[in-house]
Each structure stands twice: as C-alpha cells, then as structure tokens.
Amino acid sequence: MRTGLSSNWIDDLQQVLSFHFMLNALRAGSAVAVVAGALGYFVVLRRQSFAAHTLALIGFPGAAGATLVGWNPLVGFFGFCIGGALMIGALPVSGQTGSSSDGESSAVIGTVQAFALACGFLFVSLYKGFLSGLNSLLFGTITGITDEQVLSLFVAGAVCVIVLAAMARPLLFTSIDPAAAAAMGVPVRLISVGFLLLVGLAAAGTSQVTGSLLVFALLIAPAAAATKLTARPFVGVLLSIGIALGVTWAGECIAFFSPYPIGFWVTTLAFTVFLLANLYRGLADRYGAHNPHHRNRTHV
Amino acid sequence: MFSQPFIQHALIVGASVGALSGMVGYFLVLRAQVFAADALSHVAYTGALAALAAGVDMRLGFFAATITVGVILSFLGGRRIADDVLTGTLFAWILGLGVLFLAIYTTQNSTSNGAANAKVLFGSIFSISKTAAATASWIAAGLVMLLIVMARPLLFASIDATVAMARGVPVRFLGALFLAIVGATVAEAAQLVGALVLLGLLAAPAAAAQRLTNRPWRALGLSATLAVLAVWGGVVLAYAVPKLPATFTIMLCAAAELALAFLVTISRSQRKLQTVATS
C-alpha cells in the first residue's frame, strides 16, 4: 500500500489522492482544522487551555463507553464532549471564565478530567479485546476515517462555524473585558457556557482525526502562533485557521509516506510553527519599532 | 484479603505515595498550578515510552522526564506558570513525541506492547513488585520530609510572593524546587494510577481539603489523609469487585471525596444563611 517518495511532487500528490482513505482523511482534517483554528483563537484569548484540554479528553470515555454498549463511537464522542462542556460550565466554582489561573476551579476541572479518563479505562477493560483500539482512540489514525465520519464532521463543523460567527462580537468583548461586557448588558454567563459547548463539539470532531490526547495541539498551537503574529482579532482568526489547515494537511501527507503516526507529525509541525511565530515576534519587537500593533497586542 | 502480599504492597505504596500526592496537591491548588501538573503527567507518558523504546526501566523515564520538564516550566513562568498557552503547546508537542516513541517501541516488540502502553497510561497498583514498592515508598517518604521542611516558606511564598521576597525568602528557588518535587510526585503516582489519571489524585483531595478548612496546616494534613484514604478505599473496592480496575476505583473514591466536600460546605453555608435570617 505504501510507496516511497519520488522526485516529482505532483506525482506524489496524485499518489496520495488516489487512495480513498487519504481523501477522507484530508476532508476530515480540513473540517477539523477550520473549526479548531477558529475556536482555538478564542480559547487562547480567554486563557481556557485547561478546560479545552479536559473537554478534548472527555471524548475518549465517550467513545469507549459507546463501543462497550454497542453504539456508534461517534455518539459517544459528541455526547460526552457536549455533556462535559455543560458540566464544566455549570460547576459552582468555575465562575465566569474557568481560566486555569484560578486554583480551585482548575482543581475541580482536573478532577473531572481524571475521573473521565478513569471511566474510559473502566470501559476499555470491561470490553475485552478492545485494547488494540485504545491507541487509535487516544492517538488518532489516518486510515480509519469513514464516509459517515466525514459527513458528521462537516455538519458539526458547519454548526460550530455558524454559531461562532453569530456570537463572535459579544464573545470577543466578554473575553477581553468581562466586567465591562456585563455592565453593558452582554449575557456573559450564557456566552461562556455556549462557547464551552462549541469547544466540546470541536474537540469531539477533532478527536476523530488526531485522537483524544492530541486534539489539544491543533486547538492551541496554531492559535497561539497567530496571536504572536497579529493583534487584529479577525486577521488572527483567519491566520489561525490557515496555520491549522497547513499543519493538518502537511501532517497527513508526511504520515502517509513515513512509518510514524500522524499524531507525532501534526503536533511537531504545530509546535514548530509556534516556535517560529515566537521567534518572529521576538525579532519584530527588537528591530521593528515601526510595527503599529506591537504596543496593543491582544495576547497577554 | 490483607494476607495477600500484593494487597500489602499496594496499601504500603498507597499510603506513602498518597500522602505525598495529597500534600503536593494542596500546594498546587494554592498556587493555581494544577495545569502544570496536568502537563507533567502527560510528559511522564512520553518519558516512560522513551525508556521502553530505549530498553531501560520505565521508572527511570518517568522521573527523568517529569523532573526535567518541571524545572524547565519553572524557568519559563517565573513564580507562577505565567503562560498557560506556552505550557499547553509545549506539552502537546511532548505528547506527540510520546506517540513517536510508542511507534518505535511497537515496531521493535510486536508482542504485549498494548499491555505495556495501557500500563503506562493507566497504571497498575496490584502489579507493583516488593522491591518497586519499597523504592517508591522510600522516595515518597523522603519527598514528604522535604516538603514538611520547606512548607513554611513555601506557604509564605505561595500566599504573598512580594512580601515573602522582601523578607528574604528565596521565592524563585522555592518555586523551581517545588515544581521538581511535583515532577517526582507525578513519576511516583504514575506507577500507581497511570499517567492519565494521576491528576485526580493530586487535585481532588486537595480541593476537598481546601473546601473543608481555611487553615493551611490543617488543610495540608487533611489533603494528605484524604488522598491516602482514596487509594486505600480504591484498593479495597477493586479487591471486592474484581471486575473494576483499581485505577478506576481509586479515582472514584477521590472524586466522591470532592463531591462530598462540596455537599457539606454548601449545606453548611445554607445553614449559616438561615441562622442569619432568623436572628
């Protein structure tokens, strides 16, 4: 099945696209990257990495539990991620943000995360012989994406993007200055919970491609790189989406030609882009006094 | 059941590592560094698989990876983990490296790799050997002593770093040392409940203790006690119901403690409200 690289990159690309599973992987990857890139920008802005990471992991027990009772794993992924988002949003201590700088709220989120993973382990060990599927649930695969999954990812992705576009302005406002937004009558609490729900949906979708453990790389790293490169929110979101797409496509193609799994390539590429963006920011801050944005960057 | 050697080992290791986790967890919650512990627990996975791929003892990988990254994190973030985005990106990539090591390890040994991988991820308290139990317990006892010695200045530095620094407390050094201890604790707890679940053992008893009391010393002791009880309860429960893995029952007990603490404090504050209203 696997053939080597030739010197002609067009031939290589045609070779990649001639496999149906690769086509599906690229389709699914594109849907996932757009959503993760866009939502990730706000996750970074709101400093909710920890909550996002927890939501990403909650998909694993969902899928394992669904497999145990004989349902479609997709139901488990989406059901648990949405349920987890509601739970974190409803936590009595999570306050308005659920940011990781609050000790008690992050301790509760950490407990939710560990308990969910322990449940996942319980389901896996109750379902004998499922162990071989453990790795692809946790670390993703490019070979196993079905047409049905691609369709569900497109639907979930479209819902996420439309809702996010509708709530983008108030979300940006509450993310940057929650007190002022609340004073202006913006429903801060509703927006926080709604945003967590979207992150849950995105995490469930992304887990299909990268696995539960590596969703985080696609959610945080491109967005973090984008905030280093531009201060304008709209450009930042687009840039974040662009980086996420590039990283996903490149990762999937490299994984096709290499013996190592997609999870490794996607995380490594994302981290490289993040480092390059930091390097650029450092150089620009030192030499580029003419940069008009560099005083009021939105990242902290 | 207590005559079984594997239960005895589990209870001894559970007591020492549980007490350590509870104490470290208390400071983690106080310093709002739970996310750092989350990052370190994922780093532990990569360390263990790197060790497996290189053919050395898994525990060596646990300790080397977590302590190194713990110290690195303390230099990245100053007193606190200033940038959770930086932490997140870094550990997502390190986890990706873990997948690479998993692939290397899997291609090397085609047999029983799935079991080894699950053991790193989810631990196995019942398969700890006598020597491993002794080593882990001694290391945990040493770390607990170290924490008790540095508890006073660390509390001071955690609650008000500026004043502590003005009074001559080495705040930065304490922060780095503390994250190194967190790294070692993660490596210890990973042997019990695995890299993915140990965060609950650090976070849940500590959060419950902080709910129940405001006094630092009492909360520190209570957190350690609750963590030990969670491990012991989990061991007993897993023995009673063999279908349930011990990692799950330990986490179940820890989560139940936190839920109970919430119930107790909420009903307590409501009673207070009622007495205020009636008087």
| Shape annotation of chain B | globular
Order of helices and strands of chain B: HHHHHHHHHHH
Predict the CATH topology of chain A: ABC transporter involved in vitamin B12 uptake, BtuC
Most extensive interface between two protein chains, with residue counts: A-B, 57 and 64 residues
Q: Count of helical segments of chain B?
A: 11
Please provide the count of β strands of chain B: 0
Oligomer: heterodimer
Give average pLDDT of chain A, whole number. 81
CATH superfamily of chain A: ABC transporter involved in vitamin B12 uptake, BtuC
Largest sheet features of chain B:
none
Number of domains of chain A: 1
Determine the structural class of chain B based on helices, strands and strand pairing.
mainly alpha
As a percent range, the share of helical residues of chain B equals over 70%
Shape field of chain A: globular
Unreliable spans of chain A are: 93-98, 294-300
Written as H for each helix and E for each strand, in order along the chain, the element string of chain A is HHHHHHHHHHHH
Under the CATH scheme, which architecture of chain A would be assigned?
Orthogonal Bundle
- For CATH, the homologous superfamily of chain B is named as ABC transporter involved in vitamin B12 uptake, BtuC
At the first level of CATH, the class of chain A is Mainly Alpha
